[in-house]
Design goal:
430 residues, alpha+beta, Elongation Factor Tu (Ef-tu), domain 3, Threonyl-tRNA Synthetase, Chain A, domain 2, Diaminopimelate Epimerase, Chain A, domain 1, six-stranded antiparallel barrel
Length: 430
C-alpha cells in the first residue's frame, strides 16, 4: 500500500459528509480497519483524540470507533454493530475492497474538539508572549483538555491568561491553517512541541499565535465562545492547566450551578456566602470533635482509675458497662483488654499507652466497633506485639500489624476471654 490518504479535514474542517473509495480492508489486532482514498475523519494525533462517525458501504453502515494515521495512510477502525434499515444488529461481514463509501462525521463532537483546541492555542500563545512559557504537553479527550508548561505560573498569572484569552475570543480574530513553503518556513517564528519531518502545517491566530498543528480548528476565535480554567497543579517543575471551552464549559458550569444551588438550599445560605458558611460549619465540627475527644479521654481516664476496683468487684464492672460506652473489661494474669462501643482513635491510643505503663507485664489493648467489624490497638512492655499480631492472624484471621511495642488492625469478631487467654498463650509460643 503506497497510496497516501487525502486529508479532506485539512482544508474543509466544517464539512461533515464525504464520498470515497475503499482501497483496502485489513484485520489489525482483532480489529477491522478500512482504508479510503480520501477522508474527513481526523485521526488521533498531536494529543487529540480522533473523530467519530459512520461509514456506509453498500447497504451497511458501520460505526467508526477509532481513526489512526500510519505514515500517511489513515486507518478507519469499525465495529461490527451495524445499522441496516434503521435497526442495529451484529454483522460479521467486512466492507469490500473497491466499494464506494459514504462517510459522515459526528460534527457536534468535531466542533467541540475544534473549540477546545483553538482555545488552547490562544492560551499557549499568550503564555509564551507574556510569561515566556513553552507548551511541552497537550491532551484533548472527551472529558478534559490539559496542557503543560515548562515554567511555574502563579494563580494570578493563570487567571490573567484566562482573561486575555477570552478577550481574544471576543475580538473574533481569524484562524488560518496553511502549509508554508520550505524557504518561507525558515523565516517564521512558530511554536512546536517536537521536531517535524516533511511538510509542516501551521495554524495562525491573527496577531496572537503561530503553531505547528495537524488538527482542525474553528475559523474565527468568536466561535470558541468562552475559555475557562477549571484546574491547575504544579507539574514537573512547571504547571499543568486544565481548561474547557464553548459548550463543554457551559455544561461544566451548569453542573456546578446545580451542585451549589443544592448545597445552598441544604444549608439555607446564599450561594455567594457558601465558602463562609462551610468554613463556619467546618470549624464547628472541629470544635465538637475536640470536645468529643476530650470527653472520651476523660471517660477513659476514669475507667483507667477504676480498673483496680473492677478487678476485685464484679458489681463495679457491671455498673461501668451499664453507664457508659464500655462493653466488656477483661483483666486477668496475662492481659487487660477493654472493649468499647465507640471511641476516637487518639483517645484509644492514649488509653493503651497508659495501660502499658500501669501493667508492664501484661498484654494491654482497646477494641472498638468499626465499619470493618472491630478495630484494635494493643501494646505491651513484656510481649513482642509483632508476635501478637501474627497470633491474631493465625487464630482469628485478623489484619494489621505494627511495632514491637504496639500494633493495630481489624477483626471480624469481638474477642472473648477465652480468645484472649489463647492469644497470650500462642503469642508466647511463636
Amino acid at each position: 500500500m503506497t497510496h497516501f490518504t487525502e486529508k479532506l479535514y485539512d482544508k474543509s474542517p466544517y464539512d461533515f459528509s464525504f464520498q470515497a473509495k475503499v482501497l483496502d480492508v485489513v484485520e489489525d489486532k482483532d480489529r477491522t480497519a478500512v482504508i479510503l482514498d480520501r477522508t474527513l475523519f481526523f485521526p488521533e494525533g498531536g494529543g487529540q483524540v480522533s473523530d467519530k462517525g459512520t461509514l456506509t458501504i453498500g447497504d451497511v453502515t458501520y460505526n467508526v470507533v477509532d481513526v489512526q494515521n500510519n505514515e500517511g495512510i489513515i486507518y478507519h477502525y469499525v465495529d461490527n454493530s451495524v445499522h441496516v434499515d434503521n435497526s442495529v444488529h451484529v454483522d460479521n461481514s467486512v466492507p469490500l475492497k473497491d466499494s464506494k463509501a459514504q462517510g459522515e462525521i459526528d460534527f457536534k463532537y468535531r466542533f467541540s474538539n475544534m473549540q477546545q483546541h483553538s482555545g488552547e492555542h490562544i492560551f499557549s500563545g499568550l503564555a509564551r508572549k507574556y510569561y515566556d512559557c513553552t507548551n511541552v504537553g497537550f491532551h484533548l479527550s472527551d472529558s478534559e483538555v490539559t496542557f503543560d508548561y515548562d515554567k511555574p505560573l502563579s494563580e494570578e498569572q493563570i487567571y490573567d491568561l484566562e482573561t486575555k484569552t477570552n478577550e481574544v475570543i471576543y475580538q473574533n480574530r481569524k484562524i488560518t491553517a496553511f502549509y508554508p513553503k520550505e524557504d518561507e518556513l525558515k523565516n517564521l517564528d512558530y511554536r512546536s512541541k517536537k521536531e517535524i519531518e516533511g511538510d509542516v502545517r501551521l495554524v495562525e491566530i491573527q496577531g496572537v499565535d503561530l503553531c505547528a498543528c495537524c488538527a482542525p480548528h474553528v475559523g474565527y476565535t468568536g466561535e470558541i465562545g468562552i475559555c475557562k480554567v477549571v484546574d491547575y497543579i504544579n507539574y514537573k517543575g512547571g504547571v499543568r492547566i486544565s481548561i474547557l471551552c464553548g459548550e463543554r464549559a457551559l455544561e461544566y458550569y451548569r453542573e456546578l450551578d446545580n451542585i451549589t444551588r443544592g448545597i445552598s438550599r441544604s444549608l439555607s445560605a446564599a450561594r455567594l456566602e457558601l465558602i463562609n458558611e462551610v468554613t463556619r460549619i467546618s470549624e464547628a465540627l472541629k470544635e465538637a470533635e475536640y470536645k468529643n475527644v476530650n470527653t472520651q479521654k476523660r471517660y477513659l481516664d476514669l475507667i483507667f482509675e477504676l480498673l483496680p476496683v473492677v478487678e476485685s468487684d464484679s458489681e463495679v464492672e457491671k455498673s461501668v458497662k451499664e453507664h457508659g460506652i464500655v462493653k466488656n473489661i477483661t483483666v486477668n494474669g496475662n492481659a487487660v483488654i477493654i472493649s468499647l462501643a465507640e471511641a476516637d482513635g487518639k483517645a484509644v491510643r492514649n488509653m493503651v499507652n497508659k495501660l502499658k505503663s500501669k501493667y508492664p507485664d501484661k498484654l494491654t489493648g482497646v477494641i472498638t466497633d468499626s465499619s470493618k467489624g472491630y478495630a484494635f490497638i494493643m501494646g505491651s512492655e513484656s510481649y513482642d506485639c509483632r508476635r501478637v499480631a501474627e497470633a491474631l492472624r493465625k487464630q482469628l484471621g485478623a489484619k494489621g500489624g505494627g511495632s514491637e511495642s504496639m500494633i493495630q488492625g481489624n477483626l471480624d469478631k469481638e474477642l472473648t476471654k477465652e480468645d484472649i487467654d489463647l492469644l497470650c498463650t500462642n503469642a508466647g509460643e511463636l
